[in-house]
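Field log, afternoon session.

UNIT: design team B
ACTIVITY: writing a sequence onto a fixed backbone
BACKBONE:
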């Protein structure tokens, strides 16, 4: 049984986090939210379906991660959502590359959100080399 590894993040805004998860391939139906997202009440499950002691406020069921995966969760720590990814999934299905894609997508959505709050319009352009240019 893999233990969960907490991965420090800068995911402070739930809406930007949800949009980033959609960007990397999850659907809204696959994201389970606690009734109060500032309370970590969702039970995390291991790959056998066993309840783990870890709790999250946003959870992705293991069936959406991979056939022998654990749940992936995000727990509110009072300032940000900390990613909880099992050691197994950290090295396979939710590896560094996928985590980096999530961080980049989050940054894009958070920049757009912050810009709109300040009255800017935002234009997003995807370049041929895969980079994204945001024009405010």
């Amino acid at each position: 049984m893999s233990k969960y590894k907490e991965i420090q993040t800068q995911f402070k805004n739930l809406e930007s986090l949800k949009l980033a998860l959609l960007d990397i391939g999850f659907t809204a139906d696959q994201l389970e939210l606690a009734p109060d997202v500032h309370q970590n009440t969702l039970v995390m499950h291991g790959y056998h379906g066993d309840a783990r002691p870890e709790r999250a406020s946003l959870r992705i069921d293991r069936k959406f991660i991979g056939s022998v995966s654990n749940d992936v969760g995000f727990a509110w720590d009072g300032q940000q959502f900390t990613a909880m990814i099992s050691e197994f999934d950290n090295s396979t299905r939710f590896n560094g590359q996928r985590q980096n894609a999530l961080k980049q997508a989050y940054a894009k959505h958070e920049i757009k959100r912050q810009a709109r709050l300040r009255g800017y319009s935002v234009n997003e352009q995807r370049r041929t080399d895969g980079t994204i240019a945001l024009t405010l």
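LOG NOTE: The longest helix spans residues 96-117.
NEXT ACTIVITY: expression trials, pending approval
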